[in-house]
Design goal:
The chain is 72% helix and 7% strand. By secondary structure, it is α+β, with helices and mostly antiparallel strands. The chain folds into 3 domains: 28-88; 114-265, no CATH class; 279-470, no CATH class. Strands 1-2-3-4-5 form a 5-stranded mixed β-barrel. Strand 4 and strand 5 form a beta hairpin. Helix 4 (109-129) packs parallel to helix 7 (164-180), helix 10 (278-322) runs antiparallel to helix 13 and helix 11 (332-341) runs antiparallel to helix 12 (353-371). The N and C termini lie far apart (210 Å).
Length: 471
């Protein structure tokens, strides 16, 4: 008590010593008892909080112990179940092995049937894939139905024995192929028009399993897509195209008619239509072929003109032979007679035989250049044609060697362009020279026949003049 009093007194003295003038601060001071009560209350509160936390921790620890015990019990149960399942799995594996052995024994010939079925399905699949009948049968299926190609593909890749329904469908499809492969059928089917994978429905006529026609065109079957496609380049032969048009327009179900058939199912026709035409071959030969062709055209034009001239000259000379008493200026013989008779103002019948002979020779020589016109040019063209072809051949071979040098390989595809150019130039040179050779021979024969008549008549006139002179 005395100590407490002394403490109070010391506190009071301290406060007085710090500042006797602060009355408001002194009013806010608390007693030691109140301070101690507050401290005890806070301690009690802390003890309660600590006790509550300890109780909560103990409760949670108990819960964790219970869960741990449960998990350990579950683990023990699972381990027991695992052991049991492992034992069952081992037993089942043993049973499966025994059953597979029993299955192989019981299958007997069915195993061979399975192998044969898969083999036949694979062979039939390749046949169906290359058959035009596929386009007809696929066009008649509903959306979502399994096609015969899909069926054969699945049957060939099956891992189990086929059932009766699959076997029946397999031989049914094979019989359908054999029957339809010998028929000419008209049906509607999608046809690829060459613009990507776009298709167009059109009426198609199928001739057995060889050819198909549609829209007055030849169609090609694409096994990779199981669809028909129009040939990018149709045959240039009009008779071949008219055959397809007639076949499409013939709606009769009976009778016979001509048609173009490709036994290779379109392969030969594709190669046939890809052959270059005459103009394409000429363009491939380039400049030398153009020069050779121009030379040949000029020669033919001149030869035709000269042929008409010689034919008219021969006809006029033949007409003059029938009227020798009345010479005419429209033919060589008539002009020669007029020159000898003096009607042209250059001589007279009274001239001496030597003068008459000279005048006859002059008249004949004047007519020969017209009759032998263009023959020298044609002989030149005949000689120049093979030489131009030889130049083209050399150029083509140079291009071939350049291609081989640039590529470093002797690929036939690289060599074909230059060799083709060389051969085209050679053929064009010979193709120009040989016809012009025969044409020139005909002109020579025709002109000689007219010149022979002139020489014969000139000799006759000279003989007549000599007889007159002798009498």
């Amino acid at each position: 008590m005395l100590q407490l009093f002394s403490l109070k007194r010391a506190l009071a003295i301290s406060f007085v010593g710090l500042g006797l003038a602060s009355a408001s601060v002194m009013a806010q001071q608390i007693s030691v008892e109140e301070l101690m009560n507050r401290i005890r209350a806070e301690r009690t509160n802390d003890q309660n909080v600590t006790r509550d936390r300890e109780n909560r921790f103990r409760t949670e620890m108990d819960e964790q112990r219970k869960q741990t015990a449960k998990v350990q019990a579950d683990k023990a149960t699972a381990d027991a179940k695992t052991k049991r399942l492992d034992a069952e799995y081992a037993d089942n594996e043993k049973k499966i092995k025994e059953l597979n052995e029993l299955l192989k024994v019981n299958q007997g010939n069915l195993g061979e049937l399975f192998g044969v079925t898969r083999q036949v399905a694979g062979d039939t699949l390749s046949t169906f894939s290359a058959s035009l009948v596929t386009t007809q049968l696929d066009a008649s299926l509903k959306k979502g139905q399994e096609t015969r190609l899909e069926f054969m593909r699945n049957l060939g890749a099956a891992k189990k024995l086929p059932n009766i329904a699959d076997l029946e469908r397999m031989w049914t499809e094979m019989l359908t192929e054999m029957k339809a492969g010998g028929e000419t059928v008209r049906y509607n089917a999608p046809v690829m028009t060459g613009e990507g994978d776009a298709t167009q429905d059109m009426e198609v006529v199928r001739v057995a399993s060889f050819m198909a026609y549609g829209a007055d065109k030849y169609l090609l079957y694409l096994p990779s897509k199981s669809k028909l496609s129009t040939l990018e380049r149709q045959p240039a032969d009009g008779s071949i195209m008219s055959s397809a048009s007639k076949l499409l327009k013939n709606t009769s179900e009976t009778g016979y008619m001509e048609a173009v058939i490709d036994p290779a199912r379109g392969a030969l026709l594709s190669q046939y239509v890809e052959r270059p035409n005459m103009w394409e071959r000429i363009r491939h030969g380039e400049v030398v072929v153009y020069v050779t062709l121009a030379l040949g055209i000029i020669g033919v034009v001149l030869a035709v003109f000269q042929y008409f001239y010689l034919i008219m000259a021969k006809m006029n000379v033949s007409a003059q032979l029938k009227r020798m008493a009345t010479p005419m200026k429209n033919n060589a013989l008539g002009r020669m007679l007029l020159s000898v008779s003096g009607a042209d103002g250059h001589g007279a019948d009274k001239d001496r035989p030597e003068v008459v002979e000279l005048r006859i020779s002059e008249s004949v020589l004047r007519e020969i250049p017209k009759l032998e016109r263009f023959q020298s040019f044609l002989r030149l063209a005949v000689a120049a044609g093979p030489l131009l072809g030889l130049i083209g051949t050399v150029i083509g071979m140079i291009n071939t060697f350049q291609s081989i040098t640039a590529s470093g390989t002797s690929d036939p595809k690289l060599m074909a362009n230059g060799i083709g150019q060389a051969m085209i130039a050679t053929v064009m040179g010979l193709g120009v020279a040989i016809p012009l050779l025969f044409i020139n021979s005909g002109l020579v024969a025709l002109s000689k026949s007219v010149i022979h008549v002139l020489e014969e008549e000139s000799s006759s006139l000279l003989a007549k003049k000599l007889r007159q002179q002798q009498h």
